Structure formats: C-alpha cells, structure tokens
Amino acid sequence: MVEASFTGLIRTVVIVIGAIVILRFIGQLMNAKRNLAEQDELNERERKLKAERERTNRNLGKTTIIDKGNRTSNDVEDVDFEELSD
Predict the structure, then answer these.
(1) Which residues does 78 contact at the CB level (< 8 Å), separation at least 6?
(2) How far apart are CA 41 and CA 7, in angstroms?
C-alpha cells in the first residue's frame, strides 16, 4: 500500500512547476531565434532592394545595347517592322 505524504506532494508540485518553467524558457528561446532569423531575412531583402535602387539610379537615362547572343529572360526581343506604302 502506498501512502501520500506532505513532502512527496510538495516534491511533485515543485517538479511540475520546474518543468513548466523550463518549457516556457525553451519556448521563449525558440521564439527569439525565429525572430532573429526573420529580422536577418528582412535586412537581407532590404539590402538587396537598396542595391537595386542604387543601380537603377546610377543607370537612369543611359542606353544599353543588348547583344543577341547574350539574352536573358528579362531582355526585350527585337521586332522587325515593315514600311507600309500609302
């Protein structure tokens, strides 16, 4: 037969409270780590956007000639026009 003692009850309560405190602490650490990762990702996107904006401002008003052999998906295709006679 098992008897419940006051010290056993206190010990169990302390263990449960300790487990809850440890789990909350681990949860806060994981939340902080996720927030840091999101902040790093946001800073990287902002840095890329700033670099693209500076490159665009530097090349504003300049004309570039695109070689037909060096096409990328962003390049505009050449269009042939025919003259119409009235």
Answers:
(1) 68
(2) 51
Cβ neighbours of 23 (radius 10 Å): 10
Q: Report d(CA 74, CA 81) in Å as an integer.
A: 22
The residue ranges of every structural domain in the chain are 7-56
Residues with Cβ within 8 Å of residue 66, at least 6 apart in sequence: 75, 76
Supply the pTM of this predicted model. 0.52
**Do 75 and 66 form a contact (C-beta atoms < 8 A)?**
yes
Q: Per residue in 24-36, pLDDT tens?
A: 999 999 999 999 9
